[in-house]
Every structure is written in structure tokens, then in C-alpha cells.
Amino acid sequence: MMNIIRSINYETRKSKILIRMYIVFVLLMALIALLNINTDADNMTYTSGMLSKNKTIPFLFPLFIVAMFIGYICCSDYKDKVINYELLSGHSRKKVYLSRTLYGILITSVFSTVLSLVPMVTGIIAFGWGDSIVLSEAVIRHLLLFFPYLRLTAFLAFLCVLIKSPYIMTAIGYLLFVLEGFVVHRSNYYISLFNMNKLMDYSSFSGELVIMTIATSLLMAAVYVIIGYAIFRRSDMD
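Above: the chain's sequence. Below: its structure in C-alpha cell form.
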């Protein structure tokens, strides 16, 4: 299993398109932060004000990265038959599925969380923090985004078993971006986008929010991984 993970990790690190797209999105997130901070001397909002008034900035564009990364990691090897070769080499379907899926979910969630921190870090460096919200609370909220990303990525990894196309997965990322405004206000904690929106809503912060974010994310991620494996185990690799 570890040999498969090492191979996937090598391919991912050598992917120029993923690296370039990630850099583009880092720069884009930084630019968005700078453009949304009011620099008027009489009404300067600083970074804290920008985040409190623009809840979707930290997670809206990373949705592209989520779909793109998991699509590349979990779908690309269907096209070039690498998964077939791994199975013919004696690896079990369970190891082939879990190594690719768990690696993809973890890496994608980590890089998406880091991307979500870019606007806050950029704003602090350029203009300072301000006093609209407490810095430590903002950091905790941003780090908690890891769990909704984990859940969303697990769901997309499950879709990869059905779709087997990195291009369609990227299109799904665009669809999530377009439908974000509709989903976040018409859902519950079991929907990742709603959970992200709640985390970035600085009007309230409670232990229930933290518990529900972590618990539902881990539960739903596990469910998606199990269902995905049940389908993968019976899938025709040809």
C-alpha cells in the first residue's frame, strides 16, 4: 500500500498543471484580499473587517482546487490503466482504492485549508489585522475548514469511482463555485458548503459549531469512503 502511495505522491509532485494552477489560485486569493480591504483612511476596515463582511472569500475559490486535485489523483490512473497494472501486480482492490483515495482526501484537504488562509495572511502583512474580530478566533475558524474540506473531498472521491474523468471533476468544481450562493443558505451541517459558511459567520461561535463540524465531517467522510469502496470493488476496470 505504501508503495502505491509513494508512486501517487511522486506523480502528484511532478504534475506541472497542478503546481501552476495552485500558484495561480494563491495569487488570486491574495489579490482578492487586497481588493476587498478598504484602504480609505477615514473608514479603513483592515483584514478583520474584510473577513467579517465577506464570508465566502476564504473557501469560494478553493472549491476549484478541491475538485481539480481529487480529480487528478483519483481519476487520472483510470485513463492510462495504471490501476489495472497495480491490480495485475498482485495488489488487492482494497489497497489500490484506499491508498489512492485516502492520500487524495488528505492532500487535497490540507492544500485547500492552506489556500483558505492566504487572504488572511496577505491582509495582515499588507494592512494589519484591525479589531473587528479576534485574531485567535479567526485562525481557529480557518483551521476548522479542514473538516468540511475533508468531507467534500471524500464525496468527490466517491464520485471519481463513478465518473473516472479528471476533466468532469474540474467541471464539478466550477459548478460548486456557481451554486455556492444557493447551497449555503438552504442546507444543514451535513452539507459542506453550509458548514463552511457557518464557520466564516463571525456573528456567533459556539462549542456546538466545533463539535458538529468535526463530528459530521468525519462521519460523512467515512461513509463516502466505504460506499466508494463498495462500488470500486465491483467495478470493471476495462
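The radius of gyration is 19 Å.
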